[in-house]
UniProtKB/TrEMBL annotation, chain A:
<keyword id="KW-1015">Disulfide bond</keyword>
<dbReference type="GO" id="GO:0030288">
    <property type="term" value="C:outer membrane-bounded periplasmic space"/>
</dbReference>
<dbReference type="InterPro" id="IPR017937">
    <property type="entry name" value="Thioredoxin_CS"/>
</dbReference>
<keyword id="KW-0201">Cytochrome c-type biogenesis</keyword>
<dbReference type="GO" id="GO:0017004">
    <property type="term" value="P:cytochrome complex assembly"/>
</dbReference>
<dbReference type="GO" id="GO:0015036">
    <property type="term" value="F:disulfide oxidoreductase activity"/>
</dbReference>
<feature type="domain" description="Thioredoxin">
    <location>
        <begin position="32"/>
        <end position="193"/>
    </location>
</feature>
<dbReference type="InterPro" id="IPR000866">
    <property type="entry name" value="AhpC/TSA"/>
</dbReference>
<dbReference type="InterPro" id="IPR036249">
    <property type="entry name" value="Thioredoxin-like_sf"/>
</dbReference>
Automatic annotation (TrEMBL), chain B:
<feature type="compositionally biased region" description="Polar residues">
    <location>
        <begin position="179"/>
        <end position="190"/>
    </location>
</feature>
<keyword id="KW-0349">Heme</keyword>
<comment type="similarity">
    <text>Belongs to the CcmH/CycL/Ccl2/NrfF family.</text>
</comment>
<dbReference type="Pfam" id="PF03918">
    <property type="entry name" value="CcmH"/>
</dbReference>
<keyword id="KW-0472">Membrane</keyword>
<feature type="region of interest" description="Disordered">
    <location>
        <begin position="164"/>
        <end position="190"/>
    </location>
</feature>
<keyword id="KW-0201">Cytochrome c-type biogenesis</keyword>
<dbReference type="InterPro" id="IPR051263">
    <property type="entry name" value="C-type_cytochrome_biogenesis"/>
</dbReference>
<keyword id="KW-0812">Transmembrane</keyword>
């Protein structure tokens, strides 16, 4: 009995191990930035002639959403963010990530800095007009430098930042209604207490 | 259609044998082609050469950049290093690393910079600590486990073999079989 049972137990253990392994999402890399202060920056605001930094949100719980008009998944999550911004009183700041150079279609060797900035503003504004604007404001990270400080590697990404400016959660990939209701909303409610 | 008279003339000069054929002869066509190729290469090659010369501004910086980026994982193509990957993010990483090298930061500082933002996962050789101990020791543990099972199995099988003794009857049968003179059918062995 024992002789036949052991291989079976081994096999079952292997099946469980592989099943768990296959159901993990390799894209879901835990961010070391959770629990750390949000990196500071000063970036130009879309549609305005001023700059914005995380310090401006001190004392508020807010969402930082990384997006770009070339990002296909952003389009998928966008209606959810628009809906969220209408219903819930939590500011969402957009970090427009590499609007121009992230788009593989554009030849950057022929584009200088000024043209890039202008083009980025045009493209981003047009996209928001077309799909709705859930953001209190959006800032432009043309070269993705601020993105690196936030550990961005797959747009869209969403960060929840608390009143003290500490990153409390990071979500990589599009926000789904499920993630919104099970993770983001409870955490925001708790932080706002 | 200026190419045709030019080519026929060249053919005649280069290959008088071609004149024997009244119509467009194969050797003539071949030479025409060769000349065309030569022309093409001589005209176009310098342009290619210019494009294929990504000379590093500072070879030492580039060397360090390659060494550091070979230690780092590209998070877009997760099984490629930053050095190997052509993903946009890898390009950005290389740009950042180059900037940091030029700022005079040490290799360790640069690796720490990346780990602080992207976690241990960004390193191909993560540090040994609580969360990575299984990663480092797992293969060794599995090897030891496998060897233990194997040795135990072999010992047990060995014991089983040496324990079984032959009965006198079995011994007699073996002796009979092994006797070279005759086998059981009474035929002489070869």
């Amino acid at each position: 009995m024992n002789k036949f049972l052991w291989p079976l137990v081994g096999f079952a253990a292997l099946v469980v191990l592989l099943a768990v392994g296959l159901n993990l999402n390799p894209r879901d890399v835990p961010s070391p930035l959770v629990g750390k202060p949000a990196a500071t920056f000063s970036l130009p605001v879309l549609g305005a002639d001023r700059k914005f930094g995380p310090e401006d949100m001190q004392g508020k719980v807010w969402l930082l959403n990384v997006w770009a008009s070339w990002c296909v998944s952003c389009r998928a999550e966008h209606p959810i963010l628009v809906e969220f911004s209408k219903k819930i009183d939590v500011p969402v700041i957009g970090l427009n990530y590499k609007e121009v150079r992230g788009d593989g279609e554009i030849d950057m060797s022929k584009t200088d800095g000024e043209t890039e900035a202008k083009l980025a503003r045009e493209r981003a504004a047009k996209w928001l007009k077309q799909h709705g604007n859930p953001y209190q404001l959006s800032v432009l990270d043309l070269d993705g430098r601020v993105g690196i400080d936030y550990g961005v590697y797959g747009v869209p990404e969403t960060y929840i930042i608390d009143k003290a400016g500490i990153i409390r959660m990071k979500h990589t990939g599009p926000v789904t209604p499920d993630i919104l209701s099970t993770k983001i909303l409870p955490l925001v409610a708790e932080l706002n207490k | 259609m200026t190419a045709k008279p030019f080519a026929t003339e060249t053919c005649r000069e280069a290959n008088p044998a071609g004149q024997r054929h009244k119509e467009n002869s194969p050797p003539c066509a071949a030479v025409f082609f060769a000349v065309l190729c030569a022309l093409f290469v001589s005209v176009v090659n310098p342009v290619f050469a210019k494009e294929a010369a990504p000379l590093a501004a500072d070879p030492l910086t580039e060397k360090r950049l390659m060494a550091i980026s070979a230690e780092l994982r590209c998070l877009v193509c997760q099984n490629q290093t930053i050095a190997d990957s052509n993903a946009d993010l890898a390009n950005d990483f290389r740009r950042e690393i180059r900037t940091m090298i030029n700022q005079g930061r040490s290799d360790q500082e640069i690796l720490d910079f990346m780990v602080a933002r992207y976690g241990d996962f960004v390193r191909y050789r993560p540090p040994m600590k609580g969360t990575t101990i299984l990663l480092w020791l797992g293969p060794g543990l599995l090897l030891v486990l496998g060897l233990t099972v194997l040795v135990r199995y072999l010992r047990r099988r060995n014991d089983a073999i040496s324990d079984s003794k032959l009965s006198p009857e079995e011994q007699r049968q073996i002796d009979a079989l092994l006797t070279p003179s005759q086998d059981s059918q009474g035929n002489k062995p070869q």
